[in-house]
């Protein structure tokens, strides 16, 4: 299965993914995020499992489930293991205070649940995702019948929410939970925590893509170097 | 189809439902809630439609869809008509400031979306639902994989969230949107607006049952009398 | 969480459940069905796991997931383990050729997927479920928008399909997959395999409750005795 | 919202869509399919509605809902109007006996329900969709947990089923009903009715893309000419 942005090898993404995998201790329960950089972390963890690392993983999407199974990582669930030792995930934008935006892959609801269930939340990205201030459109998972109400409320907040069209089915992208994915452009968001609280109060949004609970970010550069921010 | 609490005729519920139906003007788009008192409003509106009232309705659940069709009320949707003139719905508890708790019927997510899409939100209840302060367990619609995380966060807020068991299927009640219904007991909630904001920030809750946007409440008494609060 | 028909101890159900649990070999991947008799099998398997039995289980519903976790049985999934060694499940009716009807608990879709993924499918019931010929209404999982079309097609087959009303939410019972549960009364069904094929061709039915792949049935009597049919 | 294959004007698609729209009589309830050729029919119907045609439409997907609303066609539902006068839809392949394959847009489940609810089912396509014998991979809507079981059963039928990857979310395409879309390659299918029956018996398939109930096909050529087959 080919996927969103898994085109070609990126040494920095791989280095960031591998660095995060190094943080996983024997005996851990690990949350596995979605996306191309996380895929490198999953592959690296799979190699360690083959060498004897004893872990079990909770996935955040059908994509990460498939990758984890392929990599040979035994799976569990939040129902079975409600508290995770660590969660590793990618991001679509990271600001200077480690606030991140997720949801380009449409999986941010389960990703947020998993990240908050973990004692440590590690983000892995390439350097193209770094910015001073969040400014990308915020992915929203939305109850289908509430799309107009969400657009109205987002407009009242000064933004513009659009339904994300699919390209391999007709109509909108549907999330793994059966809801719409919308993208809400607000321009720069200098105060992500406050803004996230406001978005949480918008009725009809099942979950938005702002995460304010990151512990560490590994940034991979094209030359394969990585930088750690925490 | 028999249903939750539709046992026997209740003159007060009927009077409250009929009073609300009287507010609906010709040419309106009307939101139709769920539950036994609202069912009287739907029936009353159906009688008016037969006599020539020109309305179209947006339903909040499969139950209200079935009742509206039976009553002969033409239906539309929020996609087609994003702004409603009026919405009529029941409630499970009403406090002295017209804050209400809904979700006993598991339909509070769409009910909230519909109520907020309406210019006026009218609540109809019998007098057993009235209290000074909200104190019933708050119904929550919850992403299935987030049930443990929601229980933890509710516990941190001083409450106790339980999965609502079904009785005509095995396992939990599943909402019309495919999610779990949980009930979170917090005791008295003297400040529902503030509390609602906090609940909205609990990750994993798709929507909670506190509504703070009621315009009028019709209360029906067993003797068939009604009282209006606004 | 209390549930559909788990009222009081039934020595025959327990004996049947325990007998099925005895069939599970060390190292197996086991499918775990839904319902009150299967619950005894899950409990028995949990006791064996505590004594060292090495198994992993695939659940068929949120109910069996919760029971298995409570019993301490490690879980896996069909994605991770597509072939099961054995599946154990209850039934609502068993005919003289070991054809069974399931879906009283609304979980027959995943139950059928799990039973067909298993090398052996063991059914456990109490003697009240035994009959010469299938005659109970057949549970159907139905796409919500197809309910009328299903009713028409069922009527053409000589049956009558009704939506199953919920009692702890308003409106119909919703399955764990977000669909309607309907019950289709046909009277006696002397040729279940042929009839099952016809039902599979009814457009709008996601899955019906007739299973024709049972290997063994353990029948428990009120005095605690069991009978094996195969 | 841009979408799958709505790139550039196609005179033949438009002519086919318009021809189908001409069949719709005043007072009809019309089923509206999904896809680029149907979109022309929807637009043409919208123009007729503006000129006074009195119809109501049932949509088959979020896409056709959005297009119909944009075109100003009043909507209804199968719940409200279980029997349609006519349904118009596109197709991905049409054989010489008017058997068609649908599901390239992932909406074939609701499309099939709508087509079977209609007294006449009209297919509109461009000439690239015509073939002697069906040979494209058959789109399947599949319960997520049953994907492996479906792959096994499809393999036993001599085919190969693959999960359809999404490109604007991570992981598989999710249908409007929350299920997976898979594509099952079987090579030529000379006997579509018999084959459709077999596919309907595959447990885990919610619905497959073979339709054998077409009444008329309008084929549009690049020069704007159309051909009618019935």
From TrEMBL, chains A, B, C, D:
Annotated catalysed reactions: aldehydo-D-ribose 5-phosphate = D-ribulose 5-phosphate
List of residues binding substrate: 34-37, 89-92, 102-105, 129
Keywords for the protein's UniProt record, in alphabetical order: Isomerase
Enzymatic class: isomerase
Domain of life according to the entry: Archaea
Enzyme Commission designation: 5.3.1.6
A molecular function (GO) term: ribose-5-phosphate isomerase activity
GO biological process per UniProt: D-ribose metabolic process; pentose-phosphate shunt, non-oxidative branch
SUPFAM superfamilies hit by this protein: D-ribose-5-phosphate isomerase (RpiA), lid domain (SSF75445), NagB/RpiA/CoA transferase-like (SSF100950)
Keyword Isomerase: yes
Keyword Metal-binding carried by entry: no
GO cellular component, one term: cytosol
Pathway participation: Carbohydrate degradation; pentose phosphate pathway; D-ribose 5-phosphate from D-ribulose 5-phosphate (non-oxidative stage): step 1/1
Entry-linked Pfam families: Rib_5-P_isom_A
Active site: 111
Function text: Catalyzes the reversible conversion of ribose-5-phosphate to ribulose 5-phosphate.
Family named by the database record: Belongs to the ribose 5-phosphate isomerase family.
Quaternary structure annotation from Swiss-Prot or TrEMBL: Homotetramer.
HAMAP family referenced in this protein's UniProt entry, alphabetically: Rib_5P_isom_A (MF_00170)
The protein's name: Ribose-5-phosphate isomerase A
